[in-house]
TrEMBL record:
PANTHER family: MARR FAMILY REGULATORY PROTEIN, TRANSCRIPTIONAL REGULATOR, MARR FAMILY
Species for this entry: Kibdelosporangium banguiense
Domain HTH marR-type: 11-147
Coiled coil: none
Protein name: DNA-binding MarR family transcriptional regulator
Length: 155
């Protein structure tokens, strides 16, 4: 077995800082989202994705892939959102096992009310603390990591 590739001081500082920031930032932004709109982070993700989709609809399978969730987990969450009138579910005509999730008028009103509050929270707790250069570097860094994670590991 080869020796571990331990993090150097700069890497350790960056990794621990990222982890701490991720936890604190998510907690703060999601707390404000829930307080101001009554929506959870997954609610917001589903509604915002549907609001941006053509005809405000998404296949359940594709929506689950986009959210990095299992279909079962998303299906259960969508059921709870249906009970609140935010979305509806239609069976697919071309796939008896498939479902399409549609944004309702109530769901559209909810995301339209929540989005400005949510983006202000993100700006206030994240972007307002960074320079334009830091934002551009962060964008490059996150895209590099996401790209690498999407590429299958040859090992």
């Amino acid at each position: 077995m080869s020796e571990p590739r331990w993090l150097d001081e700069a890497e350790d500082r960056a990794w621990r800082g990222y982890r701490r920031m991720f936890l604190l930032l998510n907690a703060q932004v999601n707390r404000e989202l829930a307080q101001q709109s009554g929506l959870s982070e997954p609610d917001y993700d589903v509604l915002s994705t549907l609001s941006e989709a053509r005809d405000h609809r998404y296949r359940l399978k594709k929506l689950a892939e986009r959210m990095l969730w299992s279909q079962s987990r998303l299906s259960h969450h969508v059921t709870r959102m249906q009970q609140r009138g935010l979305v509806t579910r239609e069976e697919c005509t071309d796939d008896a096992r498939g479902a399409t999730i549609l944004l309702t008028q109530a769901g559209r009103r909810a995301i339209e009310a929540a989005a400005p509050l949510h983006v202000e929270s993100v700006r206030r707790h994240f972007f307002d603390h960074l320079t334009r250069e830091q934002i551009e570097i962060l964008g490059d860094a996150t895209n590099a990591v996401v790209s690498a994670l999407k590429t299958p590991d040859p090992a």
